[in-house]
Amino acid sequence: MAYVIETLVKALVIIALFSALAGFATYVERKILAFMQRRLGPMMVGPYGVLQLVADMIKLFTKEDVVPKNVVKPIFLIAPLIAAISAMTALAAVPLFPEFTLFGHTVRPILADVGVGVLFVMGVASVSMYAPLLAGMSSSNKWGLLASARAVVQLLSFEVVSGFALLAPIMIIGSLSLIDINNYQIGGVAEWIIWKQPLAFVLFVIAIFAETNRTPFDLLEHETEITAGYGTEYSGMRWGMFFIGEYANMFTASFLVSLIFLGGFNPMWFIPGALAIILKVCFLIFFFMWVRAAWPHIRPDQLMWLCWKVLMPLALLNILITGIVLL
């Protein structure tokens, strides 16, 4: 019973924490983009516009949930739920912090310590592909349908690249457990996987930009078009759930990069492990936003060319070289 209660508490904490962080990240991103582009960003609601987040939440929760006449209603209503649920479920196998003791009880900050954590996270995160697919297919809007097809092509393509990019580090470590991967780097900064697999790190980071729908690969819901891609016919909180899923996936990807390549939650010099992984994740989130401010969008054909003619051969070459070195 104690285990069940602890698991439920962890699940509720993860859902509440990362839902709140996803909302707060929208404010942070607007301020960072404004600073880099010499604007002010949100300034009117609260000090430095910090209450703009509350205003946006009130707007989303109170805005009318319009369901267009000719949509396939059950699928249309389920699609946003898939985006949010898959993003939160992927966090279940991610060890967020090192173990700590609370009131004499040892707490492990991971919801489900499965032995194939990398495979679980990648598999569950890939389910989010069905959110834009079903959203576009169930809409009565032809632009939404075209955008959903484009989204699936992008996500499927870069999932292959991200999977191949992680094969080389897994070959070195010999385990799919994120805890084992973290413990492999326990010797300090010099033991980080990024020094042994720099190409895999670069390939994986590029792939997660595409999989999390971030600039310059944000072709799933293209902000510069007149329509909003697969989400054209959504409004209110259903529209917001797509973006909760997007920002939650961004946090999941940042934790994955930190755990696999950047030493995880091991102590870093004089910095304790829990603070170290928070700093790494914050830097990666900032990096996501920095790239959005600095880089333009690319065309779909350029994206596919990059995936299949550049990233894929490099990933396979990296696996081949790693195998030869290990032998």
UniProtKB/TrEMBL annotation:
Kindly give the InterPro entries that the UniProt entry links to this protein.
NADH_UbQ_OxRdtase_su1/FPO, NADH_UbQ_OxRdtase_su1_CS
Q: Which GO terms describe its molecular function?
A: oxidoreductase activity
Domain of life of the source: Bacteria
Bilayer topology annotation: Multi-pass membrane protein
EC number(s) from the headed UniProt entry? 7.1.1.-
User: What residue ranges are annotated as transmembrane?
Assistant: 12-28, 40-62, 74-98, 110-131, 151-181, 193-210, 239-262, 269-291, 303-326
Q: Where in the cell is it found?
A: Cell membrane; Membrane
Could you say which protein family the record assigns here?
A: Belongs to the complex I subunit 1 family.
Question: What's this protein's name?
Answer: NADH-quinone oxidoreductase subunit H
Q: Which organism is it from?
A: Sulfurospirillum tamanense
Reactions catalysed, as given in the entry: a quinone + NADH + 5 H(+)(in) = a quinol + NAD(+) + 4 H(+)(out)
Per its UniProt entry, what is the enzyme's top EC class, as one word?
A: translocase
| Record's function text | NDH-1 shuttles electrons from NADH, via FMN and iron-sulfur (Fe-S) centers, to quinones in the respiratory chain. The immediate electron acceptor for the enzyme in this species is believed to be ubiquinone. Couples the redox reaction to proton translocation (for every two electrons transferred, four hydrogen ions are translocated across the cytoplasmic membrane), and thus conserves the redox energy in a proton gradient. This subunit may bind ubiquinone.
Give the chief site where it resides: membrane
Q: Identify the PANTHER family for this entry.
A: NADH DEHYDROGENASE SUBUNIT 1, NADH-UBIQUINONE OXIDOREDUCTASE CHAIN 1
Record text on subunit structure and interactions: NDH-1 is composed of 14 different subunits. Subunits NuoA, H, J, K, L, M, N constitute the membrane sector of the complex.
This protein's UniProt keywords: Cell membrane, Membrane, NAD, Oxidoreductase, Quinone, Translocase, Transmembrane, Transmembrane helix, Ubiquinone
Record's signal peptide: none
The major lineage groups are:
Bacteria, Pseudomonadati, Campylobacterota, Epsilonproteobacteria, Campylobacterales
Pfam families xrefs: NADHdh
